[in-house]
Amino acid sequence: MATTSSPATTDLPRTPRDLLPVFIAPIIALVALPLVGSPTTWVTLTIAALAMGSMIFVIASGLTLIFGLMDVLNFGHGAFIAIGAYMAMTVLVPLSGWVQSDALSLNLAALLLAVIAAMIGTGALGWAFERVIVRPVYGQHLKQILITMGGLIVAEQLIHVVWGGDQKPMPLPNGLRGAITVGDFALEKFRLLAVAVGLTVFIVMQLVLNRTKVGLLIRAGVENREMVEALGYRIRQLFVGVFIAGSALAGLGGTLWALYRETLTAAIGGDIMVLVFIVIIIGGLGSVGGCFLGAILVALMANYTGYLAPKIAVASNILLMVAILMWRPQGLYPVARR
Amino acid sequence: MSEPLLSLEGVHTHIGQYHILQGVDLVVPRGELTVLLGRNGAGKTTTLRTIMGLWPPSRGTITFDGQSIGGRATPDIARLRIGYVPESMGVFADLTVAENMRLAARLGPPDAARLDWIFGLFPALKRFWQLPAGLLSGGQKQMLSIARAIVEPKALILIDEPTKGIAPAIIEGMIAAFKELKRAETTILLVEQNFRFAASLGDTVAVMDDGRIVHRGTMEALAADSVLQTRLLGLSLAAHQ
To answer: Can you give the pLDDT at residue A86?
Structure first.
């Protein structure tokens, strides 16, 4: 539409770009370099952090949108992580021939099938979870916390019933074991894959949010749900779609997380939820970009302190959150309304 | 007076434990600009929100173009071609002006000719087309909010206090824009505190107090009667000037 494309004046106000938070990650990495001492170890830790951050982002991105769009505090998100991982394991175990094959194509085919099963399964579960558990408690935060935590407990117990309560091995495809050597640096293959998956999810989400009408609706709904409805859009249907997509992403993230650890228990989801909540709080509730940056920061902090001062590794992310919230109380990239 | 496009009969609205609307009877004639006046807290904003379904009526009937809309969901009411400009303006601050307009054009991309017409009414919007709406001034946000409501042809537009906190120069531009909308025979229900602004635009007027309509008539008659203005509003048009 010619009319709308070129408001050609040279003195238009510039859109301010808030890049300051982006520099925190490289600053943390550079500060850690002399403390770690060995560049090889530093690269290994940094790649591990990027991989971990990518996986946390995949898990947290759906949750931040669910909170932003409908003010729903879903403590049951951990259930989708765990069930996604178990579903992937259920597919990978009978495909052990493909998993252990020397052919990378068979390895990746097995992994793809596992991921598809995990995402479809957790997406369907997310649909049911929204209808049965979340829908009756819209707008009631205390009840949301209680009932979604209850949902998480029920899901964990169902995992015990279906898959047993013992720790299970998660078969990592053969072709993803080991490392690629670049000069003096060894880059683990699975970690590189995790980074690639995280970046792909981030790019696809940015494209959907910024280039499509559905994305516009999600961004607008996060900011002012009531006004979106007053424009004639049925936002509840949109929310169900976002809930399903967020649950499916949790299933994908759970699969990656279990492959990373190579073991899984029913508590795998609940264990990582503390980090996930830290990520969405410091990123800015409802902000996908903030969530990505927050995930990278949390992972960098966890990996560097885990190596340098293991005793404070758990507390380091709480300190990071406190520091960021003192600087920016609404998070790194707050959504306008919040 | 033209036939009614919108009518409220005995409408009550409760918000929590508070009984805000206490039997509102209101008629909005087709093709006219009806002004809803009243003191702060009289129930004007609640009336608009009840019509839009943002707060459901607890009693009474709301009829729009021959069909009952009381208690319907907000999106279904909006889809009857009812535009809404809230007091808070409701612009999406993180979205650009272009994205705000694109979102408001629910049925498809905004029509180029209509967009040109809107740019004629609110030239600033063209200038700031690619700027995030959060960076606009209060007056520009109000222009965007109104432009969004008219980007597609509407049967009725509900506008809540468009002049609140807006500079006089922008209010003059707004008066011109509303006159243009009236020429296009758009039906408007306007909540307003600025009596001079209301008097320059209104065809009919209703005055609210304590959740009820306490006066109905033509704006011309109210504007000419300073005693009535003082009794209903506590201030006359002369005092505004």
So the answer is: 97
Contacts of A232 in chain B (CB under 8 A): 75, 78-79, 106
Query: Domain boundary residue among B114, B137, B153?
Result: B153
* A216/B93 Cβ within 8 A: no
B71 and B96 inside one domain: no
CB-CB under 8 Å, A336 with B93:
yes
Indicate yes or no: CB of B104 within 8 angstroms of CB of A228.
no
Of B78, B94, B98, the CB nearest to A230: B78
A33 token code pair: 């370099």
Same domain as B173, residue B112? no
Query: With an 8 Å Cβ cutoff, are B127 and A15 in contact?
Result: no
- Residue A257 region, left (φ>0) first, then alpha (ψ -120 to 50), else beta? alpha
pLDDT at A4: 42
Beta bridge partners of A245: none
Is residue B9 one of the residues assigned to a domain?
A: yes
Show the DSSP H helices in chain B as ranges.
Answer: 44-51, 74-78, 97-104, 112-121, 123-127, 138-150, 168-183, 195-201, 219-224, 226-233, 237-240
Q: How confident is the model at residue B236 (pLDDT cuts 50, 70, 90)?
A: low
Cβ A4–B92 below 8 Å, yes or no?
no
B207, B222: one domain: yes
Report pLDDT digits (tens) over B78-89: 999 999 999 999
ipTM at complex level: 0.92
Q: For chain A, first and last CA: distance in Å?
A: 33
- In chain B, the number of structural domains is 2
Interface size between A and B, measured as CB pairs under 8 A: 92
Rounded percentage of chain A residues whose pLDDT exceeds 70: 94
Asked if residue B33 is part of any domain, the answer here is yes
B20 & B58 share domain: yes
How big is chain A by its Cα radius of gyration, in Å?
21
Q: Residue B129 is nearest to which of A4, A16, A233, comparing CB atoms?
A: A4
The residue among A4, A14, A337 with the most chain B CBs within 10 A of its CB, best to mutate, is: A4
Range of the domain at B162: 4-81+154-240
Cβ atoms of B33 and B15 within 8 Å: the answer is no
A233: confidence class by pLDDT, cuts 50, 70, 90: very high
What is the arrangement of strands in the sheet containing B156-160, beginning at the earlier edge strand? B82-85, B156-160, B187-191, B33-38, B204-209, B212-218
Same domain, B36 and B134: no
Is B20 found in the same domain as B132? no
Same domain, yes or no: B204 and B178: yes
For the segment A96-149, what is each residue's pLDDT rounded down to a tens digit?
A: 999 999 999 999 999 999 999 999 999 999 999 999 999 999 888 899 999 999
Q: What's the pTM value of the predicted model, to 2 decimals?
A: 0.87
